[in-house]
Amino acid sequence: MALGNHSTITEFLLLGLSTSPQVQTLLFVLFLNIYLLTILGNLMMLLVIRADSHLHTPMYFFLSHLSFLDLCLSSVTVPRMLRDLLSEIKTISVRGCLAQSFFVFITAGTEGFLLSVMAYDRYAAICHPLLYGQMMRKELCVQLVLGSWGLGFFNALINILLATDMEFCESHIINHYSCEVPSLFPLSCSDISTNLIVLFCSTLLHGFGTFFPIILSYACIVSTILSISSTSGRKKAFSTCSSHLMTVIFFYCSGFLRYLMPTSGSPLELIFSVQYSYTVVTPMLNPLIYSLKNKEVKAALTRTLEKYLQHIRC
Fold first, then answer.
1. How many other CB atoms sit within 10 Å of the CB of residue 198?
2. Which part of the chain is the G-protein coupled receptors family 1 profile domain (predicted)?
C-alpha cells in the first residue's frame, strides 16, 4: 500500500516528555544546550582529525565517521523535539513520521555496524601490532565504512517498507517525543504480525550480529593486555580502547531496551530513549569521551588551536 492510502489518519500527535509548560521551557533550554554541545563537539572532532596529519590513521578515520553519524543521529529527532517543546500543537504527518523513522533506522543501524568495525580495528592494533598496517589498509577501511552504511540502509528499508502498509484509523497519539517504528504498532488497526516478526528478527540479527564481534574482539584484547608484563604497557594498551568500550555500553544497553521492550510510553522507556545515541545524550558524550580520554586527540587539538592562533596573528 502506498503512503497516500493511509486515508483515515493523516497525522499523529506526539505527547513529548511533559505536558507542563514550565517543564517544557526548562527541557527546551536543557536540550538546546546539549544539542549545541553535540554539534560543536562532533564538528570539532571532524575538523581536528582532518586538519592534523598525526590522526590520519584507521582508528581516527572510523572515529570521524562516528562523529558524522552522531551529528546525523542527533539531528534526526532533536530539532523537531525542540520545536515541539515550544508549540501547543505537536503534530507530525504520517509521511513525515515514516520518514523520521527511516532516518532513525539508517543512522542508528549504521552506527551499530561502525562500532563493530572499530572494535575489530582495536583488536588488530593491540593483538597484531606488527600486522596492523596490512590488516587495516586504506581500501579495507573504506569498504568497511561503506558496508556499514549499506547494511544500515538495507535494515531500514525492510522495516519502513513494511510500515508503509500499516493502516491507522483510530488512535493517533504517540506516547513519545519522536516517531519510531515500535511506537507506531499500537496505533495500527491492520495486522502487524509480520512487522513485529521482522522488527524483532532484524533487531536481534543486527544487534547481536554487531555486538558479538565486539565481545569477541574485546575478549582477545583483554587476554592480550593481561599477558603484557609491564603495568605501564597494560595501561597504555587499555587506554586505546576504553573510550570505544564506553561508547559501546551506552549505545547497546539503551538500544536493546528501546527496541525489545514493549512500547508503553512509560517514563522509564522515555529515559532510555533520551539516553539512546540517536537522540540527545550519547552523541554529546562521544566527542567528550574521545577527547578527554585520548592524549593524541588532546595533543592534536592543541596543535590545531596553535596553528589557528598563529594564522590570526599573521
1. 17
2. 41-290
Q: Rounded to whole angstroms, how far apart are CA atoms 159 and 105?
A: 9
pLDDT, tens digit (0-9, with 9 covering 90-100), for 81-134? 899 888 888 889 989 999 999 998 899 889 989 999 999 999 998 899 899 989
C-beta separation of 6 from 259 below 8 A: no
> 203 near 218, Cβ under 8 Å?
no
pLDDT band at 277 (very low <50, low <70, confident <90, very high): very low
Q: Residue 134 carries which DSSP code? A: H
Which residues, listed in sequence order, are joined to residue 161 by a DSSP beta bridge? none
Which amino acid is present at 136?
A: M
For helices 281-292 and 21-51, what crossing angle results, to 10°?
40
- Looking from the CA of 119 toward its CB, the CA atoms found within 13 Å total 24
Long-range contacts of 21-27 (CB under 8 A, 24+ apart): 24/85, 24/86, 25/85, 27/85
